[in-house]
Write a structure and sequence with these properties.
342 residues, alpha/beta, 36% helix, elongated
Length: 342
């Protein structure tokens, strides 16, 4: 079924293998070809008998649930526009150090500075559709080392499929990644944050903060009216206490909006007032222009460096991230900027 939250590719394969009376090791051979070698056609899985290859190809067709439409390559990033079987767009970005996957087509959060939010939400993706983004790059020879759920969509509003995806990514018979090689970013969905401590305590959790002030954050991120900043920070404190894992606070610097010295000082105070302040790390990111209707601008380098300096002087663990992929609309907040409205 299109849009199945979990995905059912492996179940279909198992059903066919059972119907044909094939031995159990056939599934292992298929997984080795798919996850180990990135083979995306049953007909090319040469470890299988030819008749089985032909049967799987006939009954199941294409392995991938998404189709690559456009690829934009630069020195440090590759962005691919995919389309789902029901014609919805999604984008994925690969950099030398990680693949940034999407968990939804579009996004319902409508953050003021994000191009994806201007698309609205098409629907949540199934775990097959998320995994197939990774498999596409695997098939091109990309070494799968780190995965970030920081592409299109809010992961904690598609939690069932995202958890299923992460379990597949960390399955030793499939991709075999360590939990700490996976990062997830949320705008602050409190029930989801609380469940993450139970379900996946070892992955890296990031929170899109962007302002230390509630009223300003509500203007930038409407979701803050549902989950106020104080409530989110309390949930993050509980997560830190339960997991003893570092939490990343993502902060997009926007010219003349949230980039002055007062914001820096109050951000530092917000972090220092946590019960476990040493477990919070601030990632500063300069605003990336995307959708033409978004009129924000990035601050000058000296302003960003001053902001960083203030945080460091206040004893905050922090860094200013490089803007790789900005020219190709492949940087944070830019996914969907070049997708035509449907």
């Amino acid at each position: 079924m299109i849009g199945n939250r979990i995905g059912n590719r492996e179940e279909k394969i198992k059903e066919i293998l059972e119907e044909l009376g094939e031995p159990q090791f056939r599934l292992t051979q298929i997984n080795e070809a798919l996850y180990g070698k990135g083979v995306l056609r049953y007909s090319e899985m040469l470890s299988l008998p030819q008749t089985l290859r032909e049967t799987l190809e006939h009954k199941l067709g294409s392995i991938s649930s998404i189709k690559a439409i456009t690829t934009i390559k630069s020195i440090n990033s590759t962005k691919v526009l995919f389309e789902t079987c029901d014609g919805l767009p999604l984008e994925t970005v690969a950099r030398p150090d990680f693949i940034c996957v999407s968990c939804q087509s579009g996004c319902a959060m409508k953050c003021a500075f994000c191009s994806t939010g201007r698309m609205g939400l098409g629907r949540s993706l199934s775990s097959d559709e998320i995994i197939d983004q990774v498999l596409y790059f695997k098939s091109t020879g990309y070494k799968i080392s780190n995965i970030t759920f920081m592409g299109m969509g809010e992961p904690l509003l598609n939690l069932e499929a995202v958890v299923a995806t992460i379990l597949e990514l960390t399955d030793p018979t499939k991709f075999g990644l360590g939990m700490r090689k996976i990062s997830l970013s949320t705008v602050g969905i409190v029930p989801g944050i609380k469940r993450m401590a139970e379900l996946l305590p070892q992955i890296n959790l990031a929170f899109s903060l962007h302002s230390p002030y509630e009223a300003e954050r509500q203007r930038l991120m409407p979701i803050s009216t549902t989950y106020p900043l104080d409530e989110v920070m309390k949930a993050l404190d509980e997560h830190a206490a339960a997991t003893h894992r570092q939490i990343f606070l993502e902060y997009v610097l926007i010219k003349d909006v949230n980039d002055d010295a007062k914001h820096a000082r109050d951000l530092a105070t917000l972090v220092k007032n946590r019960p476990l302040p040493h477990l919070f790390y601030v990632n500063l990111i300069k605003f990336h222009a995307g959708n033409k209707d978004i009129t924000f601008e990035a601050p000058e380098d000296r302003i960003a460096q001053t902001f960083l300096k203030i945080l460091k002087e206040k004893g905050i663990n922090c860094s200013l991230r490089s803007s790789i992929g900005e020219g190709d609309y492949a940087a944070c907040g830019q996914l969907g900027a070049m997708i035509d409205p449907r």
